[in-house]
Specification:
about 290 residues, mainly alpha, Four Helix Bundle (Hemerythrin (Met), subunit A), globular
């Protein structure tokens, strides 16, 4: 079957889907330059560049999952290039460029899956997994950059806190364990947490006091500052460029903030999720 779309067809389809997807999921109008100049310009860069790449990819036998895996590998390349930046400034710029433009590929796998009817559960998992790897790679790369640039070994120890904190988040581990229990032994899950007999019990589930408090608002502000979103990554990239141009020490403080944030997330999640029936509530809602 031929998938030889013209570049115009690819662009039109690509723009139509991303406009709808961004509005439905985030209430963001990617065509509104006045309200969202950053989003307008960044999405033009994504869509125009990915359309050119798609023009080539759809004419090959490459599968969406292959694109997703390449997208994930970009996170490892980012880490390597940032770690080698002390040897040659070109490596720094390569690492920053990958971190800035990686979403180009992220916008390609879904298009190919829809066009060739190759949507799959593994593809659904691989897409956010690629973003996960890129986030860890970029943040760890910052640590290796600092260790080599400032010749301070303690940054190397701090670097390993980032993947460690990602790995020990209770919520992620609980979801993983729950999924495994559902797949391997659903009867055992019903024994340790019997289904609610009365649907009203589900509707009347108590919301954690933390969810209602001002602390939650402060925590969210803290959580979304220098997070994994493109806006935050691009701001850090800008700080990188300012640091290299004017010899300011900016990235070091960004890195300290990232380490602090990961530790806070781990301890808050341990406190909140170990003292609430949040997992039971989740199970009840999907039953």
């Amino acid at each position: 079957m031929s998938y030889a779309q013209s570049l115009k067809e690819i662009r039109d389809t690509h723009y139509t889907h991303q406009r709808k997807d961004n509005w439905d999921n985030f209430k963001i109008d990617i065509d509104d330059f006045k309200s969202n100049p950053y989003t307008f310009l960044k999405w033009r860069f994504y869509l125009e560049t990915s359309s050119l790449i798609l023009y080539i990819l759809i004419r090959t036998n490459i599968k969406p999952n292959h694109v997703s895996l390449i997208y994930a590998l970009l996170g490892i390349l980012t880490l390597i290039f940032l770690g080698l930046s002390h040897q040659n400034i070109i490596f720094l710029y390569l690492g920053l460029f990958i971190a800035f433009s990686k979403t180009i590929l992220d916008a390609c796998d879904g298009y190919i899956a829809r066009l060739k009817n190759q949507k799959s559960l593994s593809g659904f998992i691989l897409d956010p997994y690629g973003a996960y790897i890129n986030a860890i790679g970029f943040q760890c790369g910052i640590g290796f950059y600092l260790a080599n640039t400032y010749d301070k070994d303690y940054f190397l120890y701090l670097v390993f806190l980032i993947p460690f904190c990602y790995a020990i988040r209770l919520k992620s581990y609980a979801y993983s364990s729950l999924l495994n229990e559902i797949i391997e032994n659903k009867d055992h899950l019903d024994k340790i947490h019997p289904p609610k007999k009365n649907n009203n019990e589900i509707k009347n589930l108590k919301i954690s006091k933390l969810e209602k408090s001002n602390f939650r608002k402060i925590y969210n502000l803290f959580l979304y500052t220098f997070d994994d979103r493109a806006r935050s990554v691009d701001l850090i990239i800008l700080l990188f460029l300012i640091e290299t141009k004017f010899n300011f020490k900016l990235i070091e403080f960004v890195f300290y903030y990232l380490i602090l944030k990961h530790l806070v997330i781990v301890f808050v999640s341990l406190f909140v999720y170990s003292n609430n029936e949040w997992l039971e509530n989740k199970i009840n809602k999907i039953r």
